[in-house]
Amino acid sequence: MAFFTGKVALVTGGSSGIGRATAVAFARQGAKVVVASRRVAEGEETIGLVKAAGSEGFFIKTDVTNEADIKTMVEKTITAYDRLDYACNSAGMEQQPTPITEQTEETFDQIVNINFKGIWLSMKHQISQMLQNGGGAIVNISSAAAIRPIPGIHLYNASKEAVLGLTKSVALDYAKSGIRVNAICPGGVKTEMFERFTKDNPQAADAIIQMHPMGRVGESEEIADGVVWLCSDQASFVTGQILAIDGGFILQ
Ligand SMILES: NC(=O)c1ccc[n+]([C@@H]2O[C@H](COP(=O)([O-])OP(=O)(O)OC[C@H]3O[C@@H](n4cnc5c(N)ncnc54)[C@H](O)[C@@H]3O)[C@@H](O)[C@H]2O)c1
To answer: What is the pTM of this model?
Structure first.
């Protein structure tokens, strides 16, 4: 029996990688899926995969750093489906390793706005709607680098750690309202982000793989499975938690 029949899920950053795999995983469990991201063609491609998985959904072009976009994203979800049960906030960007003395204010603003402000804005509007439903579940995608920092990507590490603080404190406030809020810390995962991070430095890919005790990086579907579990009733007593899905990365 599907976990999410009759339910509605929203995924930010759903045009690729972990967000796309999560949209498909929600669809396989019977949820209608709204995909919000910046890239239209790729977002529509995800909706094709949602339909192929046996469900329905639609794409909304959204920049998670823009509150008007986030408000519209939630409003259009409600106009179409009348409710919002689950959200996975996966939109994010990487940082190339750079000495702090050479980092720019522009990079700071970009990373903090997408990785941190984007999650804050998303939760603000998702929770406002979930309160009207009488409950819901949110999973924020942080990173294993929030727990075990990767050298040279200070802003990325810190922005992902900020997501954990936000997740725990928002979870606390809404625990009695039936809204569960958790975070997943993926280890390295084979996505466009991983390709961009390692493309100019093939040795970096090997070095990252070696940082994982399992001797490999993950697949997006392995992270999506965690999102589905955290949103499901099987996790009904779980809130404010940080789930590392990382091949053992944070153990060392
Ligand atoms: N791949 C990894 O190794 C890894 C490891 C740990 C954590 N993560 C986190 O997982 C999440 C998903 O990343 P991924 O690996 O799937 O990479 P990805 O690049 O495939 O996905 C990121 C998505 O976010 C979207 N996005 C970026 N900025 C946006 C904005 N301003 N508004 C709306 N959408 C925006 C991109 O278009 C893309 O679809 C990110 O938060 C990332 O930090 C990834």
So the answer is: 0.98
